[in-house]
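Query structure, 208 tokens:
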């Protein structure tokens, strides 16, 4: 299946081939057309017909989190070691993880009823708190055979003053070999756990 002359093969190519074979062909360093598209589904949703009243709860804009280049992609990363990353083949996200997570986080916070969540594209000029942050992890860890989502949250007031910051992380085990059928569910569960923890944290932050 693989045709290469050993005496001309660079060490990196040999290492990549060995890694791919060890993982049963489920992980690759090259991009291929996906057979599946993944998305995130909120475990908590706003009930249809629920009225939002800014007099009852403060407003909040949830911004897209920042993300490093290895996460700012539609591919699903697999951390093989502290210094090496591969990607799951035959599957991609329907959008970048940071944008998908922003939508899930906004929906989860809105469902909690502690904030009136506004669309950042439509209400950027409305006074209110702003939730910013960064995705630190959003992928698969090969060593622990689990999905890990880590989000650094930063809550700021309308003037831009930081009120609080905190890191949230969740880990969910994979039920089988790393592949397109096993990564989506655990990543969705871990993302929902982080979003729920952020929603529970917001009311504990002292108001200025």
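Result returned for the query:
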């Amino acid at each position: 299946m693989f045709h290469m002359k050993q005496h001309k093969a660079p060490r990196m190519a040999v290492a990549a081939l060995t890694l791919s074979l060890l993982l049963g062909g489920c992980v690759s360093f090259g991009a291929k057309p996906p057979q599946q598209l993944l998305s995130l589904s909120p475990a908590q949703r706003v009930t249809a017909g629920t009225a939002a009243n800014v007099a009852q709860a403060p407003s909040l804009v949830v911004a897209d989190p920042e993300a490093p280049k290895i996460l700012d992609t539609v591919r699903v990363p697999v951390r093989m070691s502290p210094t090496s990353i591969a990607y799951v083949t035959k599957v991609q996200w329907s959008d970048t993880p940071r944008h998908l997570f922003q939508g899930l986080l906004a929906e989860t916070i809105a469902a909690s009823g502690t904030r009136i969540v506004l669309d950042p594209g439509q209400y950027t000029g409305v006074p209110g708190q702003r939730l910013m942050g960064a995705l630190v992890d959003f992928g698969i860890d090969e060593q622990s055979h689990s999905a890990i989502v880590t989000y650094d949250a930063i809550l700021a007031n309308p003037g831009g003053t930081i009120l609080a910051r905190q890191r949230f992380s969740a880990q969910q085990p994979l039920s089988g070999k790393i592949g397109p059928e096993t990564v989506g569910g655990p990543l969705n569960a871990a993302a929902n756990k982080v979003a729920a923890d952020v929603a529970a944290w917001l009311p504990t932050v002292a108001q200025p």
